[in-house]
Specification:
By secondary structure, the protein is an alpha/beta fold. Helices cover about 45% and strands about 10% of the residues. The strands form four sheets. Strands 1, 5, 6, 7, 8, 11, 12, 13, 14 and 16 form a ten-stranded mixed sheet that branches. The longest helix has about 50 residues. The structure holds adenosine-5'-triphosphate (ATP). The site of adenosine-5'-triphosphate (ATP) has 18 residues, from helix 3. Keywords: ATP-binding, Coiled coil, Cytoplasm, Hydrolase, Motor protein, Nucleotide-binding.
């Protein structure tokens, strides 16, 4: 089942009544429930974007309506053993906390208190209906992720360690180590605990929202049903994500900026994960933030509902578009609906001997992008279904786990006799394919009960427990990182083994008499193979780690660029300048970025140059900045950006990003129909690819230069401008003529090839990280028998993390004054 995504538009607050409303709910057909959000194009008011969701709640929707339609139907599933995850997503001040927590009045109560109230009620009913044979226990965990650290909200703040609670991967799931859990008897008990815990939550006033949440808050409600010695456990997770925010609007101070950066980064990573899953990418960047790691969107089984909160105001225009875009893609994430295993309280039976290893092997569910499918039922339909006690519904997202289960006695997987009757599948293609039918269940006492489980639990690593018929089933195309690593390991071992075998045969042929006693060479060979495999895998890990660090930096920098562009769109040059300055440390020495900063500074006046953010640019050598300014001025004629006079209001030269999202002739277009809808991030990537991919070699930057040159020819005066063309070619001229023979180039290469960190760091533009990355990479090349020597400047430019600009700076730094710079 795919993640169910619903949108909720909040009403105007008192102070907002005179403000411009631009977001509205709509239905596909008159009289049908709302399933569309409509918003005008920021470029052209006459044009409107439409985003389709599984349900849309307009300003008049009450807390009760939302809960009844979107949450209540899943409580039954929770008691059937499915994990349920509900999370609120949206820009700061759009109503996430209102939706999840709500107000104090009964009618204003949000999803969380209503959920608990329903859970207690249903628990009591079950106990009553079974004459006390089944008992239901509820326990809570509550924690927050603040500045990318996890803190237990059930513990007083003074008990916190600065680094927070660690995360660990266990049985294919991410667990928070050391998280506390409190039993909760009834609603009063819950309210007391919840209010106390919320006092611990880090909140801080901002201009935008006096009680803006500065952390992601995760409430985990564990429901344990015990009948005799059979225990069924399931979890409902209610997550109130912190809101992304534009620091210019909030006028955040320095501390708030750090919080904001952490919040924005994790949300940005979440959007990247959503995009990656919906595209079917093999690598989903979960590990780049704790929040995404814990959520593991699309990786856990159960039911997930994402509530997108929206403010209807024009002042949120770009933010709203951005979150509409992300969440409309989240619909395509498919998650399996799998009930949690039932366990016995008592010791394991004979048949359960392998359980430990079975649990240990539980791998994350492979991900599959759900091409164009989405839930067909609306919230209202869902509510009607529930009322009629019809088959319950599908859904999905992510669950949160603690590792408390480790303390339990070894569990025994139970089969059909103790499982609830399988629910009738909803007639959607995906759920019907994924849901188990009764026919797949097996008697619990069967000696091979364990092997009967895999229809439900996809555990590909334990081949021995999977039936041949299941092995024959087609595997999903997506793979987890662990699977990829395992595959690489296997492949490397195979290649090495065959190479070694071939060598052994070759060696044996000419001198058979010289063979050592049987057994000894084999042992040596296998040891050599092991060493080789280990060495290669270590090299591979280093490379992956290296790539991840690059991506991490890139994400943060991208976020600032996106914010800068949004500020430009709003006409807020001061805010745009600050964002570009914040982005600078992530793309050091980038000529284009420096050019933007210079132009904005010039525009705003010299005074703007000296504020809190100066540190970011202060590190840039004056000579470089001067050179860059000259270059930028020359390049001006070829940039099709606003500051260059084309009047498209888009300094980044990517005015086409909206055009791509807009249907010609002002027709409405659904965001569901492709990925070419508005996406500020992608737009920045396109435009600023040169500083976003410093490590991808020269191909990209050359392309970029070419594009600029071409643009010049077509947009400036209609005739090619010699300046721009000359500019592109002169940029590298000095170092490209005869790179290896010039003494300066040889000097630079000698420093690089020395692998001496101190020397490399002394090069212009080389900080500690860049130098370390370079040395790591050279060592990696060496380990891979590719020599590990950099033979020319062109070769150096091709290395990850280098690029033309970096090499040029280092080269020029060597010439100026005959020494090397101090690095950035
Ligand atoms: N549906 C609604 N009905 C009435 N008031 C609402 C509604 N949604 C939000 N509000 C009000 O809007 C304001 C902002 O809402 P809220 O604090 O829930 O936003 P938020 O998205 O959680 O912000 P943050 O991310 O900063 O925590 C609050 O005053 C809240 O009471």
């Amino acid at each position: 089942m795919s993640v169910r995504v619903v949108a909720r538009i909040r009403p105007l607050l008192e102070k907002e009544h005179d403000k411009d409303v631009i977001v509205r709910a709509d239905s596909v057909e008159h009289g049908k429930p709302f399933t569309m959000v409509k918003i005008p194009s920021p470029k052209n008011e006459a044009e409107e974007f439409s985003f389709a969701f599984n349900g849309v709640y307009d300003q008049s929707a009450t807390q009760e309506q939302l809960f009844t339609a979107e949450v209540a139907p899943h409580i039954k599933a929770l008691f059937q053993g499915l994990d349920v995850t509900l999370f609120a997503y949206g820009v700061t001040g759009t109503g996430k906390t209102h939706t999840m927590r709500g107000g104090l009045k009964l009618a204003e109560r949000g999803v969380i208190p209503r959920l608990l109230s329903n859970v207690f009620r249903r628990g009591k009913k079950i106990a009553k209906d079974t004459n006390g044979e089944t008992s239901v226990d509820v326990a809570l965990s509550y924690y927050e992720i603040y500045n990318d650290k996890v803190f237990d909200l059930l513990e007083p703040p003074e008990k916190r360690t600065p680094s927070g609670l660690p995360l660990r991967e266990k049985d294919g799931k991410t667990v928070v180590v050391g998280l506390s859990e409190r039993a909760c008897e009834d609603l009063k008990d819950f309210e007391r605990l919840y209010i106390e815990s919320n006092m611990n939550r880090v909140t801080a006033a901002t201009k935008l929202n006096a009680h803006s949440s500065r952390s992601h808050a995760i409430l985990r409600v564990k429901v344990t049903q015990t009948t005799g010695d059979v225990v069924r456990e399931s979890t409902a997770s209610a997550i109130d994500l912190a809101g992304s925010e534009d620091n210019r609007r909030t006028e955040n101070g320095k501390e708030r900026l750090v919080e904001s950066a952490a919040i924005n980064k994790s949300l940005f990573v979440l959007s990247q994960c959503i995009d990656a899953i919906s595209r079917g990418d093999k690598r989903v960047p979960y590990r780049e933030s704790k929040m995404t790691r814990i959520l593991s969107l699309g990786q856990n089984s159960g039911i997930t509902v994402m509530i997108l909160n929206l403010a209807p105001l024009r002042s949120y225009h770009l933010d709203t578009l951005s979150s509409l875009n992300v969440s409309s893609r989240a619909k395509r994430i498919e998650v399996r609906e799998i009930e949690n295993e039932v366990v016995y309280k008592q010791g394991p039976r004979a048949a359960s001997a392998n359980l430990g290893s079975l649990q240990g092997s539980a791998a994350r569910q492979p991900l599959r992008a759900l091409a164009n499918a989405h839930n067909v039922h609306t919230g209202a339909v869902m509510a009607a279904k529930t009322a009629a006690d019809k088959p319950d519904k599908p859904v999905k997202a992510f669950s949160v786990y603690t590792d408390k289960a480790a303390a339990k006695p070894a569990a025994v997987v139970v089969a059909a006799s103790v499982l609830p009757p399988s629910r009738t599948a909803i007639p959607t293609v995906n759920s019907s394919q994924l849901r188990r039918s009764n026919s797949t269940k097996r008697p619990s006492d069967s000696a091979d009960a364990l092997s009967s489980r895999p229809t439900k639990l996809a555990r590909p690593t334990h081949q021995s427990l999977v039936r041949p018929s299941q092995q024959a089933q087609p595997q999903p195309l997506s793979m987890s990182a662990e699977q990829i690593e395992a595959m690489v390991e296997k492949k490397v071992a195979e290649i090495l083994a065959s190479r070694a075998a071939a060598e052994a045969v070759a060696a044996a042929e000419p001198a058979p008499a010289a063979q050592e006693p049987a057994g000894a060479p084999q042992q040596q060979q296998s040891k050599a193979l092991e060493d080789e495999v280990r060495r290669r895998l270590e090299a591979l890990e280093r490379r992956i780690d290296h790539d991840e660090r690059h991506d991490d930096t890139r994400s943060e920098g991208l976020r600032h660029l996106l914010q800068a562009r949004q500020a430009k769109e709003r006409g807020d040059d001061a805010a745009a300048l600050r964002s570009y300055e914040l982005a600078l440390p992530f793309f050091p020495g980038q000529a284009k970025l420096l050019g933007k900063i210079d132009r904005l500074r010039a525009k705003l006046g010299a005074a703007a140059a000296g504020d809190d953010f100066q540190t970011a640019t202060a590190a840039t050598p004056r000579a470089e900045r001067k050179r860059t300014r000259t270059r930028t001025r020359r390049a001006k004629t070829c940039c099709n950006d606003d500051e260059d006079g084309n009047g498209d209001g888009n300094e980044d030269g990517n005015g086409d990003c909206y055009a791509a999202a807009s249907s010609p002739g002002g027709k409405h277009r659904s965001a569901d129909h492709g990925d070419d809808v508005y996406d500020g991030t992608e737009a920045d990537v396109d435009d600023d690819g040169s500083f976003l991919h410093p490590g991808r070699g020269t191909t990209k930057s050359r392309k970029h230069n070419q594009r600029n040159t071409t643009t010049t020819t077509t947009t400036a005066t209609g005739t090619p401008t010699a300046t721009a063309t000359t500019n592109n070619s002169t940029t590298k001229k000095g170092i490209d003529e005869d790179p290896t023979s010039s003494p300066r180039a040889a000097h630079l290469l000698a420093i690089v090839n020395s692998r001496d960190l101190r020397l490399i760091r002394s090069l212009h533009g080389f900080g500690a990280k860049k130098a370390q990355d370079l040395v790591d990479h050279l060592n990696l090349l060496k380990a891979e028998d590719e020599g590990g020597e950099v033979r020319s400047l062109a070769h150096l430019r091709m290395l990850p993390g280098m690029g033309s600009r970096t090499v040029e700076r280092a080269y020029e730094g060597l010439s100026s004054g005959g020494g090397v710079g101090t690095g950035v």
